[in-house]
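User: Hey, quick favor. My workstation is busy. Could you predict this chain's structure for me?
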Amino acid sequence: MRKPFYRASRKKWFVVRSSGKFIPLHEDEEEAFRIWNQMLEQSRRPGDPRLTVAALASRFLKEQELLLKPDRYKHLEHYVCVFVADHGGKRCNEVTKGTVAGWVNATDWGDYARRDGIASVKQMYKWGMAKKHLPENPIATLPNPKPDPRERVLSEDEHRRLIAVARCQKENGKEFALVLIASRCGARPQQIREVTAGRRSVRPTGRLVRGSQAFRLVQSAGPFPHPVRAVPVAN
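Assistant: No problem, here it is.
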């Protein structure tokens, strides 16, 4: 590409591409040369600045289908295809961090699905850079924080309702209700699994033996199932 030249008739600086096309730059000489240098820099970069999102996605998914397990590929393909449906006609360098953030925020997905959506698009762009399909990655620094944990502590009312529903089930309902009660008392899943008929008492006072230590189960004051605490019994 030759250096810019000034056309007095147009009062503007121009540059001629190798194809012979005249490209207008700017009226100001300094700004015209800045634009020209920027064009030179872009022409030296690998990748196609005209590549569309749909074209990049097609290349990306074609390779990933050969590398990933079917379930993992379907998961990735889903999010990439949804993004392509909304932004496939754009050039890859026209997509910004705001484009991707606005895309996921416009969906009715949960926090984890939105995180997976952003991760899938970022993975596609990162792959495009590694394969030299893209001259730059405009979403490389897009934040994608991990959502808050899905786990939470149930309220006493929620726990009480779970027990009531469990007791109404014909198959293993009562057993599951006992597991719920035991977990509310502070027992860990492993401890609950270790309890056998020989290690419990059906007497009202209740007695649990773990190793050489015996515990007495005492009903605490308050609404059910707020209930039971284990008090060590002297040997």
